[in-house]
Amino acid sequence: MKYTTYWGCMITTIEYAYEISVRETFPRLGVELVDLDWNACCGYPLMQVNLRIWLYLASRILAAAQEKDNPLFVPCNGCHISLCEAQHLLLKHPELVGWVNGLLSEEDIEFNPQKPLKILHTIDLLYDELGLDRIKSVVKKPLGFKLACHYGCHILRPTEYPRVDDAENPVKMEEIIRALGGEAEDYPERLECCGAGANLVEPEAVAALSGWKLKAVKARGFDAMVTSCPACQNNYDTKQDMIRQVTKDPEISLPVFYLTQLLGLAMGIEPRKLGIDLNKSPVEELVDL
């Protein structure tokens, strides 16, 4: 099964563990990752600033991916919504296709509205494309701990075009965790935002928001949190020192993993091969590094 893979900016610059764990686990499930010939911004940070620049940048990725003639795998939540929304607009408004292709002609590429891409995220590639039975078949070391799933906002909302899971009651990540031998259940704060969109303007407010959720998750008896978004992981995993400083609460401390890292652990893969040694949260409480 071949999937053209677009990594985006965050995964390739500061959240390396996500890419490391995907590259280590997905081939063992029969997935062949076909990288784009180049990597560039999908335009997501500019969606609320300049729609035309965003649409042009996202369309470049779409056009380049169409040339590979595979479904497009996008593990980043922000990139996923950027490319899905761009394709949605291009298919809905033909006049935008002409404008975009006029710009893309300088690179000798174009977006073809007759060949819309199937765009997949980590969660629906695992759940819908591969299936739980396939996942269960590779489990060698069941996880055995209780995990709070954090989906993030952008793979669930808005719902004008298909998203990864139900916006009000997503279940796919929990079912994947159970297939890996872990325990997962609903909790009141499950769909709350990590605040990443405000990191550049209100970092302390974001730290307080992230800390509130981490504290709630720990109080509800979870052993760790699991994410599938580099921005959310960066907030909950990397910034726990800052969260403790801002909230003045030294007790806020919780292991945070990528879903693909937990997939690899259940497969019996050595933690360092999954980039778990790069996590900044106290993952050593659950995993021997």
What topology does this entry show?
Elements: E1 2-5, H1 8-13, H2 16-25, E2 32-35, H3 51-68, E3 72-73, H4 77-92, H5 94-104, E4 119-120, H6 122-130, H7 132-137, E5 146-149, H8 172-179, E6 183-184, H9 203-219, E7 224-227, H10 230-238, H11 240-247, E8 256-258, H12 259-267
Parallel strand pairs: 1-2, 1-3, 3-4, 5-6, 5-7, 7-8
Helix pairs in contact: 2-12, 3-4, 4-5, 6-8, 9-11
Which spans have pLDDT < 50 for at least 5 consecutive residues?
none
Question: Which bin fits the share of residues in helices?
Answer: 40-55%
Task: Return the domain count.
Answer: 2
Span between N and C termini? Answer: 32 Å
Q: State the name of the first-level CATH class of the largest domain.
A: Alpha Beta
Helix vs. strand class: alpha/beta
Beta-strand portion reads 5-15%
Describe the 3D structure.
With 289 residues, the chain is an alpha/beta fold. The chain folds into two domains: 2-120, Glutathione S-transferase Yfyf (Class Pi), Chain A, domain 2 (Up-down Bundle); 134-285, Rossmann fold, CATH 3.40.50. 44% of the residues lie in helices and 9% in strands. It has helices at residues 8-13, 16-25, 51-68, 77-92, 94-104, 122-130, 132-137, 172-179, 203-219, 230-238, 240-247, 259-267; strands at 2-5, 32-35, 72-73, 119-120, 146-149, 183-184, 224-227, 256-258. Strands 2-1-3-4 form a four-stranded parallel beta sheet. Strands 6-5-7-8 form a four-stranded parallel beta sheet, with helices on both faces. Strand 5, helix 8 (172-179) and strand 6 (183-184) form a beta-alpha-beta unit. The longest helix has 18 residues, at 51-68. The protein is globular, with a radius of gyration of 19 Å. The protein starts with a strand and ends in a 22-residue tail after the last helix. The mean pLDDT is 97.
